[in-house]
Amino acid sequence: xxxxxxxxxxxxxxxxxxxxxxxxxxxxxxxxxxxxLHRPTNKQVAVKVVQRARVDAEKEARAAAARxxxxxxxxxxxxxxxxxxxxxxxxxxxxxxxHFEHEFVEMLGLDPNVTTHAGTTAAAVGNCxxxxxxxxxxxxxxxxxxDYWPKKGEPxxxxxxxxxxxNPWHPGVRNLxxxxxxxxxxxxxxxxxxxxxxxxxxxxxxxxWGWVRPFALVPKLRCGAAAATRDGGADCAADGDLDxxxxxxxxxxxxxxxxxxxxxxxxxxxHTVVALWSGRLDPLDGIEWxxxxxxxxxxxxxxxxxxxxxxxxxxxxxxxxGEPYAEQKVARGDYTRVLxxxxxxxxxxxxxxxxxxxxxxxxxxxxxxxxxxxxxxGAELDVLEFEVKAYFALNAGMHDAxxxxxxxxxxxxxxxPISAIRYMASLGQSSDPSDAATYNxxxxxxxxxxxx
Length: 452
Description:
The longest helix has 36 residues, at 52-87. 33% of the residues lie in helices and 12% in strands. Helix 1 runs parallel beside helix 3 (122-138), helix 4 packs across helix 8 and helix 6 (352-365) packs antiparallel against helix 7. The chain is built from 8 helices and 13 strands. By secondary structure, it is of the alpha+beta class.
């Protein structure tokens, strides 16, 4: 206990060893007041006895609250600067910027005019974090300074092979010259998923993404940019490096299913699956699915069989109750349309990567039963640290997945399913060789019974 005098030596603090404590005079929130004898002066005094541990705990609590406030301010400034940078040149970006400023000023009470990133204040540290993140994005290979579209003469510029775009509302594929290469769609004016009005046709997305610096991928394959490799040649050299001459970065190289090429059968089968699954969107076909966990989930790898889909084994028991899941029958077309709508539900919602964050928010961060442990072990983390690390792990993983997916897309320059299906159908049918008038080995195959 720390002892301080309130009367001895003119009200100044005195040495506790000079005091002889006596009767209790009173008690308060921070300690007790006692009568005491001040030996050097032989005077009766009143002293307050305070528990040092309690004082130290309260000081630490105040310091912890200050640290928490500083962390929140730091992250708020970092997020505000990065978001305003990302959205300032977007269509309808002014609306986003106004929303960000309202949240920053009105909800958080922060000042957007504090722009310094020098020093150690919370605002300066947050601005510095944003500055570093923005600078990294400008130099990560995504061609941000060219609006993510490398221009002619710039590294990784993309030139479309099929020069004739086509309108899907019209029949045919409008002079498609190469059934193995990407073709533009011309669908007039439309509102894309980000809420942007597009006139004419959407441009090729992410042409430089295969060169973006990854987070955790280990380079395994280097694929040259020569067009010949797209047709089944020596696709990739396993030299383990992403070299500086503009090589493609591909962590996975599935090979190029080619029409009349290296894997013609896979080309036909892949696009047939798209047609089959599109046929599952009809809610009036009378087919029901059990969508409970007893039937869905616990999937095998994609299997080519009469079902043309994943074989899901489901789960025998609910791990929380130990009981079997109840059957939940719904119209297949309702379920498939709702599932598709969830992942691509227009400008009033998030893009598919944003939906993964929505799932994280609902299933993990907003779930009181989740223990906030890194990797499921160790001490439980505080809320902010857990949320930052959870968001980072999820989005860094999606970043690397995007590099693989978009890098493969650019490398093989594959055709859209709608173009491939229409092209095959324009050639004829491939089921009856005896009908010479309509038969073509590259024609669209027959669909299995009940496959629509």
